[in-house]
Amino acid sequence: MGMIGEAAGNILRLPEVLGVTTFDNRMVRISTGQLDAVLNQATSATLKARDLVAGRCQSDLTTSLESASWSAAQCLDHLAQTTNAFIPAISSAIAHAPHLTTNRALRTGALTGLFIRNLEPPYRLRFKVLAPLVPRRRDFDSAWRAFEESQVQLGKTIRSAAGLAIDQAKVESPVYARFSYNVYGALCMLTAHERRHLWQIEQILKALDGTPPRDAS
User: I want to staple 181 with a disulfide (CB 3.0 to 4.6 A). Which of 43, 110, 185, 207 is the partner?
Assistant: First the structure.
C-alpha cells in the first residue's frame, strides 16, 4: 500500500491552453479543458480506490459476496487489464492524430456516448466480460500494483494527447473487433468504466460492513 500515493502524484494537470500553428502559420489558442477533465477523472479514480481500500483487511478485499461475483481485488485487476488492453491501441492512434487547428469541443461520437452513459454508476445494464478481461489475480497486493501501474500509464497517455484532434483518430477495440471508437471517446469510456467498478467495490465493502448495498439490478 506504500505506493498508492505515487500513482496519483504522477498524474499531473495539463497546461490551460496550448499554442497550435495552423496551415497559414497563424497561432490558435487551443483549450485543453476537456482533456484535463479526463485526466482529473483518472486521478480521482486512483484516489477513490485508495480511500475505499485504506484500512481494510485482506479478507475484506478478497471476499466475493456470491460465488459468481467478484471481490474488490478482482475488480481492481479487471480495471488494470482493461486499461492495459486499450492503452497500446490508443497510444498508436494518438501518434497519428492531427493537431487541433480551432478551439472546438472534442466529441465522443453518438454510440460511444450512449455506451458511456450505460457504464456510469449506479448502473442498470450489465455486460458480459470478455475472456481476456476476466480477473486473474485474486490477492489484493498484486491486484493493487497492477491497477496502480495501469493508472500511471493512463495518465501518461492522456497527457500525450494534448493539442491533438483525438476525436478524429480511430481505435479498434482490442477485445471485440466489431467495435471501434475515437480516441477521446475511448478515454472517456475508460474513466467511466473505472467509476463503474469502483462503485461496485463500494457496494461490496458496504455489504461486508452490514450496510445494505444499493441494488444495481
Answer: 185
Show me where the domains of the chain are located.
32-208
For the whole model, what pTM was predicted?
Answer: 0.84
Residue written as cell 489558442?
29
Using alpha carbons, select from 83, 104, 106, 46 the residue that is nearest to residue 157.
83
Q: What is the pLDDT of residue 216?
A: 46
Our CA angle for 73, 74, 76, nearest 5°, is 65
Kindly give, in sequence order, each residue whose CB lies less than 8 Å from that of residue 212, ignoring residues fewer than 6 positions away. 206
- In sequence order, the 6+-apart residues with CB closer than 8 A to the CB of 47 are 8
Tell the CATH topology of 32-208. Four Helix Bundle (Hemerythrin (Met), subunit A) (1.20.120)
Of 28-32, 69-73, 139-143, the poorest mean pLDDT is in 28-32
The 3-state DSSP class for residue 117 equals: helix
Integer Cα distance of 8 and 22 in angstroms: 34
**By CB neighbour count within 10 A (0-12 exposed, 13-18 middle, 19+ buried), where does 191 fall?**
buried
